[in-house]
Amino acid sequence: MTPTASADITRRLDIIVRRGDSLNSNIIVKNEDDEDFDFTDYEANLSVFTGVDDKQANLVFANNFDLVLTEGNISLTKTLTQMTAVRNRGYIYFLKVTYPDGKVHTWLSGKFIVNEDISDNPTTSAEIVVMSNSTPVTLTIGF
Known about the structure:
This protein is mostly beta strands and about 140 residues long. The protein has one domain (about 10-115): Immunoglobulin-like, CATH 2.60.40.10. The chain has one helix at about 80-85; strands at about 10, 15-20, 25-30, 45-50, 60, 65-70, 75-80, 90-100, 105-115, 125-130, 135-140. The strands form three sheets. Strands 1, 2, 4, 5, 8 and 9 form a six-stranded mixed β-sheet that branches. Strands 3-7-6 form a three-stranded antiparallel β-sheet. The protein is elongated. The relative contact order is 0.24. The model has no long low-confidence stretch (mean pLDDT about 85).
């Protein structure tokens, strides 16, 4: 077997979200001693693309805005309005971290899947009858 060396430290993590829902997710980061990673003087950005050849990101989590680094944690947030503007489909993303010395490394990449919000285009509905104090109540659910 031929020996190899790899400078690629990227790990794969798929992220699945729902269109039209607020996004509040945390990625826990530990160092080699299993202690919270110290992000002092680090920066990070997460960019979401429709494909590897795209030059323009469809969604960006910017450092100190909707991507916040705290000790041992990367926090990602988007509002309901921002997530409603994203089409439901499969994307890819890259989380790039800038080290205190200015070097940039991709830490995470993978699929960024936006599931459809069922209230977008209900094409079918189901009716469920439940009893409330002996009175039937009909719930109509679109899906």
